[in-house]
Structure formats: C-alpha cells, structure tokens
Design goal:
Blueprint lengths: L1 H30 L2 H25 L10 E11 L2 E7 L8 E9 L7 E6 L2 E10 L5 E8 L7 E7 L7 E9 L9 E13 L2 E4 L4 E8 L8 E2 L3 E5 L4 E6 L6 E4 L2 E16 L1
Antiparallel strand pairs: 1-2, 1-8, 2-7, 3-6, 3-8, 4-5, 4-7, 5-6, 9-16, 10-15, 11-14, 11-16, 12-16, 13-14
Helix pairs in contact: 1-2
Length: 270
C-alpha cells in the first residue's frame, strides 16, 4: 500500500506540473484501485478552482482597489519656517494605514517643503507647488500605523512663512496601492476666473487636490465632476475623484466669481 501511495503521489505531481487535467484523468486508471480513483476524482474537482485562483493572483486579482477615506480638515498655524497642527484627526489606526495630507496656502512666500512628519513618522513629499511666490499647494504622505486624534502634522519649509495654511487628511490601505508615488499636476493664474491642472490617472485609482486663492473678497469656488471635501468661500478648496473612472488625463477645473490669483495642485494615485 505504501508503495502504491508513493507511486500515486509521484503521478499526481507529474500530472499537475506537466500533463494537466486530461493526463490526470488517465492516471486514475494507472492507480488501479478505489483509493486512487477517489483521490483523483477529488483532485479533478478542485483543479478548476485552484487554477482560477492562480490566474487571479497572476493578474493582480488578489489586490483590492484602493478605497481612500476623507477624514477631515483644519488650519495649520504659521510658526517661523513651519506649518503645523497638534490636533489633527487621522482616522482609525491599522498596520497598513497610509495617511495623505493635502495642504494649501494663499501666502506661501515662495517657500518649498524641506521635510514633513505625521505623528512623528517622517513623511514623503508628493506635491510642492508655488505660483510666483504666492499661492501654494502641497502634499506629504507616510504609512502611520498608530495614532487617531490630536496627532501632530508638520510641514517644515525652506524659510520664514508669512501666512497660515489649511490641510485635508485622507487615509487609504497602503497594501491596495500599486505605487506610493502619485502622478501630479499643477496650474496657476495671476488674475483669472479658473485654474485647470491636469494629471495622468489610472482607472480604479483616485485623485486628490486642493486650490488656494490670494487675498480678496469671496470667490465662491466650485469644481465640476469632483467631490468638494472641504469648501471655503474665501481662501481654499479641497476636492477628490474616487474612484478614477478611466485611464488617461484628468482635468480638475476650479472656477470662481471675479478675477483673482490662484494655484491648484492635484495628485493621482493607484
């Protein structure tokens, strides 16, 4: 019996690796006993499901589409060369949580990001755009497994700042992303009624963006085709497109009343 089972095992491995289902059926008759027939009948029953699972894994079928969540927004205070807040809500904690912090300012003094941190975790800069030393749009991101509320977020900038900023927090399961580096796009105007940054998006991914205006009266900003996550009539707008409907170029056009300066930045993830 032991020799028969050894022979059966060898035949099964050979048929699985090289011969496929048809050869496995032929091997049933080689076994020549009831146990072999039962074993191969079961094996033939599970083979289609097993093969289907392997095909799904090979095609990336085991990776779910990203499902980002808008957590909230608030102000970043200006402290010399940093924008910071110690009361940020970054949502429910889990081991693969990626936190994405979009930020905008109407008065950046032409500064750029030198570093960023989220709950003490060093963050990567994923967007850093200033229009002619004025309106600014930026983004930092990191996998932050711990922390929920009253978390400190800091943008360390290249020099002294002369105005506050605003932030919007999004979270997404990092294991669902194909890349932690987004595509980006920016657009600005010194005096106009709209800005329209473009970005290369991938179907099933998502787009996050922000628009900042310079000083002046109410802008009444709006953006068609996107969800406005954090509106403000005078100085900023945060928006998202979840999920991206197709692969190609996405245009995020923010429009407003009156002629004002503005800068808008977008990030596309997948």
């Amino acid at each position: 019996m032991r020799k028969a089972l050894s022979l059966l095992t060898g035949l099964t491995l050979v048929s699985l690796a090289f011969l496929g289902q048809a050869s496995a059926q032929a091997c049933v008759w080689v076994g020549g006993n009831v146990i072999a027939r039962i074993f191969f009948t079961l094996w033939l029953a599970i083979t289609p499901a097993f093969a289907g699972s392997m095909l799904l894994l090979g095609a990336g079928g085991s990776r779910p589409l990203p499902a980002p969540v808008f957590v909230g927004n608030g102000p970043l205070s200006n402290s010399s060369g940093t924008w910071t807040s110690s009361t940020v809500n970054i949502g429910a904690a889990y081991s693969t949580r990626r936190v994405i912090v979009m930020a905008v300012s109407g008065l950046s003094s032409g500064r750029t990001i030198t570093s960023g941190s989220i709950n003490g975790v060093a963050a990567t800069t994923c967007l850093d755009s200033t229009r002619s030393t004025q309106e600014w749009a930026g983004c930092i991101t990191a996998v932050v497994p711990t922390g929920t509320t009253n978390v400190t977020v800091t943008f360390t900038m290249s020099n002294t700042l002369f105005g506050p900023a605003q932030y919007a927090v999004y979270t997404v399961d990092d294991s669902s992303l194909l890349s932690s580096t987004p595509q980006t796009g920016t657009a600005g105007t010194a005096s106009g009624t709209s800005v329209a940054p473009t970005v290369s998006q991938t179907a099933g991914g998502f787009v996050l963006g922000g628009t900042a205006w310079g000083n002046g009266s109410a802008k009444s900003g709006s953006i068609s085709g996107y969800t406005i996550d954090a509106p403000n009539g005078n100085t900023f707008l945060f928006f998202s497109l979840i999920p991206s409907p197709s692969t190609g170029t996405a245009t995020a056009t923010t429009t407003w009343t009156g002629s004002f300066s503005a800068n808008s930045g977008v990030t596309a993830w997948r």
